[in-house]
Amino acid sequence: MNGQSYRGAIVFIGAGRLATGLSRALHANGIAVSALASRSEDRAQALSRQIPGSVVRDAQAAAGMADLVFIAVPDDAIASVAAQVRWRAGQFVVHCSGATDIAVLSPALEAGAAIGGFHPLQTFTDPDVALATLPGCTVAIEAEPELFSILERIAAAIGCRPFALPPGARARYHATGSYGAQFINALLLEASAVWESFGKDRETAVRALLPLLRGTIAAIEQGGLANGLAGPVSRGDTGTVRRQIEGIAQVGEGHVALFRELTRLTLPLAIERGKLSAAQIDALQALLEDKS
């Protein structure tokens, strides 16, 4: 698959982080981006300079040039864009939100355009990092067959793994991304609070824990969730788990409650590995159920 898999005119409405990462990925893989539109003309011009051959237009003028429009604006602005632009029959209009129903694009549908959703399951905090990490990531696509086929080819052309997201599943699907993204930040924040209890700052804690996080991800990639599980629960080491709970309890009640619950959630994976004896499982369950 290559950039010639789609030859229609593509434009982006929105020039934020996602639009920047995705439009640059398309250009880097030979898929032309014809025009960009944004409420911030300066931002659109800055992005256009990174995409030779693209021009900056207002939303209506950009959409008028397009066969395929990616609406890459904040979720709350998608409906407004869809309502303000005059669409035409035969166009493809796609938003890039993970959680927003594609029905928000109904003005385009009523004008005879085909509508859909195209959501890369990746962070776009830093567009340069996003450009490097997009290959291999999953793209959720929701669309009718003709548009789905086009978006599927585009996703493959930029090195992503497309999959069909069924209607009504967007919010659930998008919520799962939190487990691989923002919840990691929150867990590292929680760990940092524990480090602060023995005199070390957040930066030190995060710097120490990041290699462990990378190793865990590598182990999961290699062996799956159960076989990639490390730590005392995976070994049936009840004594170490008890000492951990006692140590975290010194930091505060909320901290130990969270630690206990997270530890409880690892037990099914440890059992799935098939390495624990019945006695080890019983001991861990008893420990984790004991709130004293």
Concise summary:
The protein is α/β, with parallel strands linked by helices and 292 residues long.
Describe the model.
The longest helix is centred in the C-terminal third of the chain and has 26 residues. It is built from 14 helices and eight strands. The termini are far apart. Helix 9 packs across helix 10, helix 12 runs antiparallel to helix 13 and helix 13 packs antiparallel against helix 14. It has an eight-stranded mixed beta sheet with strand order 3-2-1-4-5-6-7-8, with helices on both faces. Helix 4 links the parallel strand 4 and strand 5. It has two domains: 166 residues, Rossmann fold, CATH 3.40.50; 110 residues.
Radius of gyration: 24 Å
Low-confidence stretches: none
CATH class of the largest domain: Alpha Beta
Number of helices: 14
Strand content: 5-15%
Question: Count the strands?
Answer: 8
How many separate structural domains?
2
- CATH architecture name of the largest domain: 3-Layer(aba) Sandwich
Major beta sheet summary: 8 strands, mixed
Q: Would you tell me the structural class of the helices and strands?
A: alpha/beta
CATH topology of the largest domain: Rossmann fold
Mean pLDDT: 95
Strand arrangement in the largest pleated sheet: 3-2-1-4-5-6-7-8
The CA-CA distance between the termini, in Å, is 60 Å
Corresponding CATH superfamily of the largest domain: NAD(P)-binding Rossmann-like Domain
The gross shape turns out to be elongated
